[in-house]
Write a structure and sequence with these properties.
Blueprint lengths: L6 H7 L2 H6 L4 H18 L16 H15 L8 H16 L6 E2 L2 E2 L30 H12 L2
Antiparallel strand pairs: 1-2
Length: 154
C-alpha cells in the first residue's frame, strides 16, 4: 500500500493516467509504490525515510516528485520527446535535495535531516550498518593484552 500519494493525486495532475488504468487502481498502485521506494532510496543518505505517512507529514516536494515519477513509470517514459525531459527534471530535484541545495519542509516546517553516516573508506564509501554505538568506541588495556596474547600463541 502506498504511503505518500494515491491514485487520485496522480490522476488529478495527469488525467491521461486514468485512461491507462481504466476503472481499476491496482495497476497504478504498483507504479506508486515503486516511485515512493525510489524517492526513499534517493533520500536515505540525508533523511530518515520512510517519512511518516499522511499528506501533512510528508514533505510536499516528496509527494510532488512521487506523483511525477509515478506518471513517468506508468506512461511518461514512452514519450520520446518529453519522457527524457521529465525524468531529468525528477532526477535533478532528487540530486538537489540529496546535495543539500534544497531542504524539505512539511506542514510543521523544516524537516530535520537524519544522522550522519560514518565514512568507512577514504573515498567516502559509507557503512551499511550506520554509526557504531559509543560504548564500542574505546578498547580496554586488558582487551588489547588478551588480543595480543591470543594471536601470539602465549
Amino acid at each position: 500500500m502506498s504511503q505518500y500519494i494515491n491514485f487520485a493525486d496522480v490522476a488529478n495532475r495527469y488525467p491521461k493516467v486514468s485512461e491507462k488504468v481504466g476503472a481499476g487502481v491496482a495497476e497504478i498502485e504498483g507504479y506508486i509504490m515503486g516511485a515512493e521506494a525510489e524517492v526513499d532510496a534517493a533520500l536515505a543518505s540525508i533523511y530518515n525515510v520512510p517519512f511518516i505517512p499522511g499528506s501533512s507529514n510528508v514533505p510536499y516536494l516528496v509527494r510532488d516528485i512521487c506523483i511525477d515519477l509515478t506518471y513517468w513509470k506508468a506512461m511518461g517514459w514512452q514519450n520520446e520527446k518529453l519522457g527524457k525531459v521529465q525524468k531529468d527534471y525528477i532526477d535533478a530535484r532528487l540530486v538537489a535535495i540529496s546535495a543539500g541545495k534544497v531542504q524539505l519542509t512539511n506542514s510543521m516546517g523544516l524537516m530535520t535531516q537524519g544522522p550522519a553516516f560514518a565514512g568507512a573508506t577514504s573515498d567516502g564509501t559509507r557503512s551499511s550498518f550506520g554509526v557504531d554505538p559509543v560504548e564500542n568506541w574505546s578498547v580496554s588495556e586488558a582487551w588489547q593484552d588478551s588480543f595480543v596474547n591470543d594471536r601470539s600463541g602465549d
